[in-house]
Amino acid sequence: MEEKERMIQQVLELQNTLDDLSLRVESVKEENLKLKSENQVLGQYIENLVSASSVFQSTSPKQRSGSSSSKNNNNNLSMKT
Q1: Does the predicted TM-score (pTM) go above 0.85?
Q2: Looking at the domain assignment, is residue 19 inside a domain?
Q3: Does any domain span residue 65?
Q4: CB under 8 Å, gap of 24 or more: what pairs does 78-81 form?
């Protein structure tokens, strides 16, 4: 009888552990979805900043190489890499 009670106690403990782990998995899944959503928002925000910034805009090939604006374009290109 004692062995049977011990086994029942072990099964109950394992069931509780499984329940706790299942709750943790659900919690982590929810957090993961939240973080994915935040990452999408931040990614879009960064894309908008990059597209609005003149530093990341492509340079025009019609500018003369000796002009001061060409030097600025070279600086812009070096910042992209």
Answers
A1: no
A2: yes
A3: no
A4: 79/55, 80/56
